[in-house]
Amino acid sequence: MQINITLHEKLKGKLVKLEQVRQPYFLFWRELADYYLPRRYIWLENATQRVQSMQNPKVLDSTGTIAARILASGMMNGITSPARPWFSLRIAGQDDTVANNDVRVWLDEVTRRMALVLAESNFYNAMAVMYLDLVVFGTAAMLIYEDFESVIRCYNPALGEFYFAQDDRLAVNTFARKFEYTVDQLVERWGEENVTDSTRNLYKTGGASCQEPRRVYHLIEPNVDGKGKVPKKFPWRETYWEADAPAGQVLAQKGFNEMPGLFVRWELTGNDAYGSCPAMESIGDVKQLQQETLRKAQGIDKVVNPPIVADVQLQHKPMALVPGGLTFIAGANNVGAKPLYQIAPPLGEMTADIQQIQMRIRETFHNPLFQMISQLDTVRSATEIDARREEKLVLLGPVLERFENEALDPTIKRVYSIMERAGLLPDAPEAISEMDIEIQYVSILSTAQRAVGVAPTERWVQFIGNLAAVKPEVLNIPNWEELVRNYGRDLGVRAKDMVPPAVSIGATQQQNQAANTTQALEQTQALTGAAQQLSATDVGGGANALQQILGG
């Protein structure tokens, strides 16, 4: 495909600049990969380093890797679990209990179909990889493309091959990468007519030539100028080209109605495009752990198999140095063989220090949050466990909010738009035509985060209950209807499990009316009885009458 040569040169220049901006992070990512995920990211190493990392020489204690995987798995299960609903759709600014029934049915069906598409694609597999990237490197990316077989198809660009740039709101608006495809893959994806002459010749040669790797460049950016092959109506533009392609020749260029990728950062500092994460904070502990593990192993080795000093007469003679071995030498005054020096490493102190380091690493990766019950020394009450969990969830609050903004919101919008264009959504009711749809997250972690806010409500209600014993009028202060509904929502109770406010208010009014009617009837019956007693009284004088009336 041919595009404007000037535009192509601008795309190449942008890629070069993005690589320069990312360079300071590269060596640090290489170190993180060495100590947490060796053999995983080949783009962070050259050919020699790749062979060395396959031997995994720097990881002697896998606590750091295990802690990272526990955090990634816990977030996967707590935020986007494939086994339970983690999102729902509702009308913006409107309570589900007052929404039109047709609208509620339509929203539920759309949610069900979207969940089905996510489950039947490779979405959850790709999310698992992205979570691990996020906790180890602080930066992760995932691309979501339309797919004929499974509606959507997700791809995880490896760290080290991609680059970010941000807009003025510090949201990623430019994504670029350098990666490799074989000749066969290039021709299969983009066609023989779009590849370079050198790639086409290799493909025609066939055999081993078809497996030759070819460098490909990829750039997604705002389509602000409307140049190239992409009409200006598309907000986003994507371009692929081979590294050795002549100016103006690209593999493909197309437009998107929404950004086709998720670009997530754990935590940002200033205007940085790349994030920081728990692995960066604990890298010192992980290095220290490997060093102490090595020294401890060396100390044990010297105790079990110490260096030996031997009599010169034993030179070139067989010696039985195995446990229980016996070696005979001539001469009664001979020194024989004995340890060169006595080794007594403080194994207890070294073990205790290693355990402290391991504990710090697990704390940095928030492992106690996801292993709270299994790590309790004694049996605790459910209330205490909930309190401890809520205390630790506060630390993940900002991370969860950023993840919803940078990963979950774009995912739902992207999948919804793809399904809408493919005609896979039910016909919308007329009542929803002018309404805005918003996303509500109902995952374990998001629900638990909201539940943290119920503590003030519980304390307030408890205070009112205690005070009501001496001041009953305080029971009139709370708006009980809204208080109970908001409490249920914060705990994750579904809106459709509550009756609409109009129904509950009507029921309350009927109960009050019935109670008033019963009370009035009881009062009427009491007055009637008193009147009958009065009419049957033998007066017989004022004092006697009063005494009989009073029951005297």
Please summarize what this structure is.
By secondary structure, this protein is an alpha+beta fold. The chain has 17 helices and twelve strands. The strands form four sheets. Strands 4-5-6-7-8 form a five-stranded antiparallel β-sheet.
Write a structural description.
- There is one protein chain.
- The chain has helices at residues 5-35, 47-53, 63-79, 101-120, 123-137, 183-190, 197-205, 278-281, 283-304, 347-364, 367-370, 382-421, 444-451, 454-467, 480-490, 501-535, 542-549; strands at residues 87-91, 139-147, 151-155, 162-166, 172-182, 213-222, 236-242, 252-256, 261-265, 308-310, 337-339, 437-441.
- With 552 residues, it is of the alpha+beta class.
- It has four domains: 5-281, no CATH class; 283-306 and 345-364; 453-498, no CATH class; 508-549, no CATH class.
- The strands form four sheets. Strands 4-5-6-7-8 form a five-stranded antiparallel sheet. A three-stranded antiparallel sheet has the order 3-2-9.
- Helix 9 runs antiparallel to helix 10 (347-364) and helix 12 (382-421) crosses helix 13.
- Mean pLDDT is 82; it is low at 537-552.
